[in-house]
Amino acid sequence: MVEHENETLRDRVSDLERRVHDQNDEITCLRATLADALRRINTLEAGKGTWDVFFNKQRMLLLVASSLVMPGA
Predict the structure, then answer these.
(1) Is the pLDDT of residue 13 over 60?
(2) C-alpha to C-alpha distance for 59 and 56, rounded to whole angstroms
(3) Higher confidence at residue 72 or residue 68?
(4) Closest Cα partner for 30 from 42, 38, 19, 18?
(5) Whole-angstrom distance between the N-terminal and C-terminal Cα of the chain?
(6) What tens digit of pLDDT does each residue of 15-47 get?
(7) Which of 4, 38, 39, 55 fits as disulfide partner to 61, beta carbons 3.0 to 4.6 Å?
C-alpha cells in the first residue's frame, strides 16, 4: 500500500514538473512577443515625432520585462 502511494506521489510530482517546464516556455514566448509589440509601437510613435512617448514606452518595456519573474530562475 505504501509502495502504491509512493508511486502515485512520484507521478504527481513528475506531472507538476512537466507543467512548470511548459509554463516557463510559455512565459518566455509571451515576454518575447510583448517586447516585440512594444518595439513596434515605439517605432511607429517615434516616426511621428513623439519622442516623449517613445522614451516612456522604453521605460515601460523595461519595467514589464523586469517584473516578469520565471519560476525557478
Answers:
(1) yes
(2) 5
(3) 68
(4) 38
(5) 37
(6) 999 999 999 999 999 999 999 999 888 888 777
(7) 38
For residues 1 and 52, the answer to whether their CB atoms sit within 8 Å is no
Q: Which residue has the cell 507543467?
A: 19
Is the CB of residue 58 less than 8 Å from the CB of residue 42?
A: yes
Q: What are the angstrom distances between the C-alpha of 71 and each of 19, 23, 50?
A: 11, 9, 37
3-state helix/strand/coil string of the chain: CHHHHHHHHHHHHHHHHHHHHHHHHHHHHHHHHHHHHHHHHHHHHHHCCCHHHHHHHHHHHHHHHHHCCCCCC
- Residue 49, pLDDT score: 58
Residue 69, all three cell numbers: 519573474
Q: State how far the Cα of 40 lies from the Cα of 23, in Å rounded to an integer.
A: 26
